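Before a computer can learn anything about folding, someone has to put a protein's shape into writing. The three-dimensional part falls to structure tokens, numbers that each stand for a local backbone shape. The protein below has been through that process, and both of its lines are reproduced in full.
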Amino acid sequence: MSKVNGKEIAEIFFDLKVHMNFWSKLHLEQVFSINGKGDEGKLTMQQFQLLLCIKDLGLNTISELSSSFYLSKSSTSLSIAKMVEKGYLEKESPSKEDDGRKIYLHLTKKGDTALQSTQNDLMAIASSYFDSFDDKKKQALYHHLNATNHLLSTGGTLE
């Protein structure tokens, strides 16, 4: 087995990112509203990602979300305001001991339902696509994706 350096891994990693983006455009993005207008009940991709970060990662302030998405606070605030208006999120004022400028965000029942519905639609499309693979290819893909996910989520540990 030949020695592999970080640059070679990085090149394959970025190729994978490009292919994943292209695959997503072809297969998954049909689930999302393009601009948030006219598709009642459909989230935009940004709304989906924001709701997911609030629910799963506990990022619940404008500062945390804007930093994670590399967006300005004003742009993030506008997106959040639209989601509050649509009933997906609610704002909570800080406690007296906390920084009075912070506003905490929480998913509403409607937001949680929209998030779950979108996730279900995405899983249905993706699983249908992967179910078309033969068993050997599914097993190999599952193994490699699982190993890659583990390496990336643990910072390279093998345990």
The domain at 40-126 is CATH 1.10.10.10 (Arc Repressor Mutant, subunit A).
